[in-house]
Structures are given as C-alpha cells and as structure tokens.
Design a protein that fits this description.
Helices cover 25% and strands 32% of the residues. The chain is of the alpha+beta class. It has one domain. It has a six-stranded antiparallel sheet. A three-stranded antiparallel sheet has the order 1-2-7. Strand 4 and strand 5 form a beta hairpin.
C-alpha cells in the first residue's frame, strides 16, 4: 500500500532533480540598462576548466558571447547582440583582464574571474527597439551562448607573423589549442518591463 508521504517525497525529488539539471538557468536575472535588456547571473562558468588553465599558462583566450531574446523556450531569436572578448591573466597580480572587440572597443583589468564574467555580460544589451511589438507584460525567454574560439580562427592581436610572447609560449611548451564546447544557458519566462 502506497501512502501520501512517499508521493510527496517522490515529487520533491523530481523537482529537485529538474532544478539540478540546469543550475545556471535558475540563476538568470534580467537587468534593465539604458533602454535595453541585459542579464545577470552569479556565474557564467566561462573562466573555468580548460579556459582557466590556458589563461594561467599565459595564453590569451578569445570568446564569442551572445545574448538573445526569445518569444518562448527553444524558439528562434527575436533580437540578438554578440560581442567578441579577449581574456588574459596577469600572472604576477593573479587578476584577469578583458578586452571587447568592435566599435567602440573597451577593456578593463585587475578583475577577479567573477568580475570579468560579469563585465562581459554587462556589455551585452539588447535594445528595446529591437524587440518590435513585444508588449509590456509579454513573456520572453533569454538565451546566453558562448564559444571559445580556436586560435587559428581568432584575430591576431598583433600584426604580421612576428614573434609574440603568446606564440613563444605555445612554441616552447607545445600547448594544444584551447578547445571548449559551446555553452548555452536558456531561462524564462520573464516579463518585459519598459
């Protein structure tokens, strides 16, 4: 005979497992910077694993980061903003620096890993004008994606084929390319506040 208590326990376990399956999605919050939609989360998980190892080896890492607004889960994007970032690590101060490519180019240094990830996310703002006819209380979903670029697909930080510190380190240590999977975090629904 099955009692009510085990059913409640089973339901609680199912809910807990569903939440554990996508912990980053549970942490996504919207921000409303100057006329747009941004995103906040306690950690993006970008500066971790192979990326962190490469940075601590003295190598710069190029990352494409994208923020999309969706009308519903797993749908095509209504509006998207993308930026390319170059991450580096100061071995002496043990702090991170980030440079954003594009116009205007921006950079910042002396950051912790969490501060560097937050700064990258702060650069991604989807203007309200790009959302078209989405109403004030219409539900939206947010998708954050990033992809670490293979060094051969990343733009050179210095012109020509000259010797750079990064190339010297790579040549002497015969380091393998930084390969990290594309990461996608989707969360919602949220309400549009204008």
């Amino acid at each position: 005979m099955l009692t009510v208590a085990p059913r409640k326990s089973f339901a609680a376990v199912v809910v807990a497992l569903a939440m554990a399956a996508s912990p980053l999605a549970q942490d996504v919050r919207l921000s409303w910077p100057d006329g747009g939609i941004g995103v906040r989360m306690s950690t993006l998980g970008l500066i971790d694993g192979v990326v962190l190892d490469a940075l601590r080896d003295g190598r710069a890492v190029v990352v494409d980061l994208e923020l999309s607004v969706l009308p519903r889960a797993r749908a095509e994007s209504m509006a998207t903003v993308r930026h390319r970032f170059t991450l580096s690590f100061d071995l002496w101060e043990e702090r991170f620096a980030v440079a954003r490519a594009g116009t205007p180019a921006r950079s910042i240094s002396h950051l912790t890993s969490r501060e560097a990830e937050t700064w990258c996310l702060d650069q991604l703002v989807v203007p309200h004008a790009d959302l078209g006819g989405v109403g004030r209380d219409a539900p939206i979903w947010i998708r954050v994606e990033y992809q670490v670029q293979h060094p051969s697909s990343a733009p050179a930080t210095t012109g020509g084929d000259g010797l750079t510190l990064e190339r010297l380190i790579d040549a002497l240590s015969r380091l393998r390319p930084v390969t990290a999977p594309r990461r996608v975090i989707e969360a919602g629904p949220f309400r549009v506040a204008r």
